[in-house]
């Protein structure tokens, strides 16, 4: 299955990398984490369509440098949107800090989908498209000598 994803993905930009990180996480750490995740899962880095995270990280220097260096987009989502996405590895610790129990996995899934966000008086519905798959669940990285901690997840747009 991974070979198929690698072959298909290398010809099309269908992978969205969800990123969660502590303040001050370096671009180098984020790049190394992405490289390791893609190597371990036999995914083609040239299939990355862009990066996704929570709104509060939209000005994070390491992320902005990564996007500029890779010439790729950064999609950001508010915590109330991310908190409505069903993910395999929610974290209550993260939830208490940022208002959603998932950043990397939920952001990757939202970015890879053509999700619809409908808000009525009391009901909020997030529908992540059926043509989306979480290819790599969240992986947490830190390296001695590089500032920060980063969480990476990868979702694929199937259509």
- Globally, the shape reads globular
- Biggest sheet layout: 5 strands, mixed
Question: Which series of helices and strands comes N to C?
Answer: HEHEHEHHHEEEE
Number of strands: 7
**First-residue to last-residue Cα separation:** 17 Å
Mean pLDDT value = 86
Arrangement of strands in the largest sheet: 3-2-1-7-6
Q: What is the count of DSSP helices, taking H or I runs of 4+ residues?
A: 6
Category by helix and strand content:
alpha/beta
The parts where pLDDT drops under 50 for at least 5 residues are 1-10, 118-127
Radius of gyration (CA) equals 15 Å
- Note the beta-strand portion: 25-35%
Helix proportion of residues, in percent? 25-40%
Organism: Brasilonema octagenarum UFV-OR1
Protein name: Cobalamin biosynthesis protein CbiG
InterPro entries: CobE/GbiG_C, CobE/GbiG_C_sf, Precorrin_MeTrfase
Domain CobE/GbiG C-terminal: 15-155
Description:
The protein is an alpha/beta fold. Helix content is 34%, strand content 32%. It is built from six helices and seven strands, in the order H-E-H-E-H-E-H-H-H-E-E-E-E. It has helices at 2-11, 27-40, 61-70, 79-82, 92-98, 104-112; strands at residues 15-21, 48-54, 73-77, 116-119, 124-127, 132-143, 146-157. A five-stranded mixed beta sheet has the order 3-2-1-7-6. It has a two-stranded antiparallel ribbon with strand order 4-5. Helix 2 packs across helix 3 (61-70). The radius of gyration is 15 Å and the shape is globular. InterPro entries: CobE/GbiG_C, CobE/GbiG_C_sf, Precorrin_MeTrfase. Residues 15-155 form the CobE/GbiG C-terminal domain. This is Cobalamin biosynthesis protein CbiG.
């Amino acid at each position: 299955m991974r070979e198929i994803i690698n072959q298909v993905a290398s010809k099309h930009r269908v992978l969205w990398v969800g990123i969660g990180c502590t303040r001050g996480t370096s671009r180098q750490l984020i790049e190394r984490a992405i490289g390791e995740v893609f190597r371990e899962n036999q995914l083609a880095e040239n299939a990355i369509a862009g990066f996704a995270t929570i709104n509060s990280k939209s000005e994070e220097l390491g992320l902005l440098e990564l996007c500029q260096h890779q010439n790729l987009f950064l999609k950001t989502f508010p915590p109330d949107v991310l908190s409505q996405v069903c993910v395999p590895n929610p974290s209550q610790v993260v939830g208490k800090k940022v208002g959603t129990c998932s950043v990397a996995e939920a952001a990757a899934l939202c970015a890879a989908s053509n999700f619809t966000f409908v808000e009525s008086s009391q009901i909020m519905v997030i529908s992540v498209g059926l043509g989306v798959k979480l290819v790599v669940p969240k992986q947490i990285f830190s390296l001695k000598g590089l500032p920060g901690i980063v969480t990476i997840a990868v979702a694929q747009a199937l259509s």
